[in-house]
């Protein structure tokens, strides 16, 4: 199948969407491989923001499925800027990014012959990046590629942009659908724990899961606001430029509710405040935006079976 006409590209995307193969890595490999074939790219990478950094999936053109690279790294300013773009772009490869590309060792000299096709997904804090040779470089793009994709002008056609956006949405959706919600879903049972656990077990229980899409944006917003601003759903929705109702619906589609996410963030920070910092229960309840210390105490008992003061005595004062 030719992959240079718009109809053929859409036909392949439809097949990828309706006939997923294997598990998560196999599905991502299929999307990234299709992206390389459609745009004659050397490499396709999906970067997706996670709490504390970013996760990436990297495919080298022609590589076997087992060669898909999956890893985590820092979310630097350049990648964050690409995630914040509004529409797909064709860019000369940014020098600050070349050293961080997984799998291929680009030098500043060789990077001058490369360009990046980037398709951002601001709603999921992600970007699909395709790396390919620029027209006129040592490895020239074929004539049909120059004509069909406006390679000489440094601009993407409207159809290119649409295909890139669909590719990015497809692979990001694969990640979201396959993300394990186990850590979050335990909130439905109130984090009920049997007996007293060790501190490392409580820390693991309170860890922030790597969630993506709207749930990930909500957790990021909550984490930024802890100790600074309100953690109410109205204020979070406003920060994310959504109505409260829209936010609730988007979370429901991911089988998560706002209270679950907020509880997880509050539990995470409460552990640190109690054990690592010398904050009073009143200070902690204020930082976590509880109405009063009683509300915080009741929530903490629900999460751990212990009161905040008892937890502090066990794991800070007596260890």
From TrEMBL:
Domain HTH araC/xylS-type, chain residue ranges per copy: 216-314
Claim: DNA-binding is one of the keywords in the record: yes
GO molecular function list: DNA-binding transcription factor activity; transcription cis-regulatory region binding
Segments forming a coiled coil: 237-264
Domain of life per record: Bacteria
Cellular compartments per GO CC: cytosol
Keywords: Coiled coil, DNA-binding, Transcription, Transcription regulation
InterPro entries noted in UniProt: Homeodomain-like_sf (IPR009057), HTH_AraC (IPR018060)
Transcription regulation keyword on record: yes
Pfam families: HTH_18
Protein name: AraC family transcriptional regulator
Natural source organism: Simiduia agarivorans (strain DSM 21679 / JCM 13881 / BCRC 17597 / SA1)
Lineage, top ranks: Bacteria, Pseudomonadati, Pseudomonadota, Gammaproteobacteria, Cellvibrionales
């Amino acid at each position: 199948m030719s992959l240079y006409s718009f109809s053929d590209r859409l036909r392949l995307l439809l097949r990828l969407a309706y006939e997923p193969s294997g598990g998560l890595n196999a599905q991502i490999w299929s999307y990234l491989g299709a992206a390389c074939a459609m745009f004659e790219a050397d490499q396709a990478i999906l970067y997706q923001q996670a709490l504390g950094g970013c996760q990436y999936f990297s495919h080298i053109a022609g590589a076997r499925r087992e060669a898909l690279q999956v890893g985590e790294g820092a979310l630097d300013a350049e990648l964050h800027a690409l995630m914040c773009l509004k529409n797909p772009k064709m860019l000369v490869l940014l020098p600050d990014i070349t050293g961080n590309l997984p799998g291929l060792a680009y030098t500043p000299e060789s990077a001058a012959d490369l360009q990046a096709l980037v398709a951002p997904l601001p709603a999921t804090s992600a970007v699909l990046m395709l790396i390919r040779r620029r027209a006129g470089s040592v490895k020239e793009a074929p004539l049909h590629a120059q004509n069909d994709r406006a390679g000489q002008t440094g601009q993407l056609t409207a159809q290119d942009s649409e295909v890139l956006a669909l590719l990015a949405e497809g692979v990001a959706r694969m990640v979201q659908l396959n993300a394990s919600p186990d850590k979050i879903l335990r909130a439905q049972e109130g984090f009920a724990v049997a007996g007293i656990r060790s501190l490392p077990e409580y820390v693991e229980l309170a860890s922030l899961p790597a969630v993506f899409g709207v749930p990930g944006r909500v957790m990021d917003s909550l984490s930024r606001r802890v100790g600074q601003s309100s953690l109410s759903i109205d204020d979070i929705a406003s920060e994310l430029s959504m109505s409260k109702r829209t936010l609730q619906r988007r979370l429901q589609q991911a089988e998560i509710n706002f209270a679950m996410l907020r509880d997880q963030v509050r539990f995470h920070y409460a552990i640190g405040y109690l054990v690592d910092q010398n904050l009073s229960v009143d200070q902690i309840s204020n930082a976590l935006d509880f109405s009063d210390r009683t509300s915080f105490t009741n929530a903490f008992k629900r999460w751990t079976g212990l009161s905040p003061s008892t937890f502090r005595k066990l794991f800070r004062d007596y260890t």
